[in-house]
Amino acid sequence: MKPDANFKNGVAAAIAAALFFCACGKPQGAREEGLKVLASGYAVYAIAREVLGDTGARLNMLVPPGAEPHSFEPAPQTAVRIKEADFFFFLNGRAEPWAMQVSDGRAIALAYNLPRETAGAGAHAWLSFDNAAAMAENVAAYIARKRPQLERRLAQNAADFARETQMLDRLFKISLADCQTRVIYHIGHNAFDSLAADYNLIFKPLAGAVFEAEPSPRQTAAMIKEIKAKKIKYIFTEEAISPELARVVAAETGARLLDLYTIEHITKKDFDEGVTYKQFMIKNLENLKKGLSCA
Ligand SMILES: [Zn+2]
């Protein structure tokens, strides 16, 4: 191993260790047992959970685990659940128009006024770390406005999360700096373009921006041809979305499949285990490092 690779791996290991042994401050300020907070889908839920932490709030999610968030259709009880919540957070009106329609003006947009612009009107904004931190600050600010007694606790939790996202960003930068290939061949939807751009990677999704947008046989054939011609060893997929198509491409090309997690979609098992934003992003990094052969 080259000395600079040794040094780089040492720095990466130190950041990874710091991420798991949070030197967060002692919680300060009041708690409010029974405060009811509702999130539209898992991305919003995962970020709100970081902020609510030890406040005593009860957090719930509208799109159930295992369901597909882009094509979610509200049920008759959706409006009732929103009405019963003290706060209802969602992405924004363009990414989740259904939430606007059923919330009677109570929906609070988190993907709003963000530092990094992303494709799809913020539909995957949290996959940029700066945006995830800003969304957490939005949660804290909105609740604190109505519940000033919680302000210190919420602000501290949001600041702790922001520090984690900064460390994740550094870890991604270091770990993805030196890779044999920089192209992510993805048999899934167009969710990771901003993440790829942040680390100077090229994102090539096979499906469209929404889950239902099936690629044409011509597009699929063209990607298979390219993967074969370039002798790509690993391709990426979202197990939850298009496993059949990904398996076909893998079988045709001999490439192995690795998962990338959008965090907007969550299996029942991962939800029950409480897999966090940080854990999903570290899984993404591990798979990117392996799939792109990063030193
Ligand atoms: Zn998506």
Describe this protein's structure.
The structure is a single chain. The chain has 295 residues and is of the alpha/beta class. The protein folds into 2 domains: 36-173, 3-Layer(aba) Sandwich (Rossmann fold); 178-291, Nitrogenase molybdenum iron protein domain (Rossmann fold). The chain is 47% helix and 11% strand. It has 11 helices and 8 strands. The chain has helices at 3-20, 42-52, 76-84, 97-102, 129-146, 151-175, 193-198, 217-229, 243-253, 268-273, 277-291; strands at residues 36-39, 58-61, 87-90, 107-109, 183-187, 202-205, 234-237, 256-259. It has a 4-stranded parallel beta sheet with strand order 2-1-3-4, with helices on both faces. It has a 4-stranded parallel beta sheet with strand order 6-5-7-8. Helix 7 (193-198) links the parallel strand 5 and strand 6 (202-205). Helix 5 (129-146) runs antiparallel to helix 6. The longest helix has 25 residues, at 151-175. The radius of gyration is 20 Å and the shape is globular. The protein starts with a helix and ends with a helix. The mean pLDDT is 90. The structure holds zinc ion. Zinc ion (ZN) is lined by residues 70, 123-124, 189, 191, 262, 264. The site of zinc ion (ZN) has 7 residues, from loops.
